[in-house]
Amino acid sequence: MVNRHVIGAHYGLRDWLLQRITAVVMLVYTIGLVTFLVLAAQATYEGWQTLFSLTWVRVLSTVTVIALLLHAWVGIRDIWMDYVQPLGLRLSLHVATILWLVGNFVYAVKVVWGV
After folding, report:
1. Tell me: the pLDDT tens digits for 72-81?
2. DSSP labels for 29-77?
3. Which DSSP string corresponds to 79-114?
4. Which domain, by its residues, includes 41?
5. Of the candidates 109, 7, 26, 3, which has an alpha carbon nearest to the alpha carbon of residue 75?
6. Is the residue at 51 inside a domain?
7. CATH number for the domain including 36?
């Protein structure tokens, strides 16, 4: 009998699940947006404004942006961890990535909520 010892931070399953869940959230949002585009083929700027003035659309858009940023974080973090060996450079890239993703989130909230 093989006795396996699990060592480490257990990132594998958590990250795998996070990637799949965020992908599903983005897929559902994309399907909804494409459905709106197809059904409202002659949509005007006012139609888009009306759609995005609904609170549930804003909340769903914000949740999708969060899912996108988490999805990007896991992917980019794995790239830095796999391919960048010098610890200082890897840490700098992690911090730069986090700052960039937080900046994108702030900008997305400003755009979606009109803050």
Report:
1. 999 999 999 9
2. HHHHHHHHHHHTTT--HHHHHHHHHSHHHHHHHHHHHHHHHHHHHHHHH
3. HHHHH---HHHHHHHHHHHHHHHHHHHHHHHHHHH-
4. 11-113
5. 26
6. yes
7. 1.20.1300.10
Q: Quickly tell me which residue has 């914000």 as its tokens.
A: 62
pLDDT at residue 2, rounded to an integer: 64
Instruction: Let me know if residue 4 belongs to a domain.
Output: no
Quick: pLDDT tens for 29-51. 999 999 988 888 778 888 888 88
What's the pTM? 0.84
Nearest to 26 by CA among 69, 55, 58: 69
**Does residue 1 lie in a domain region?**
no
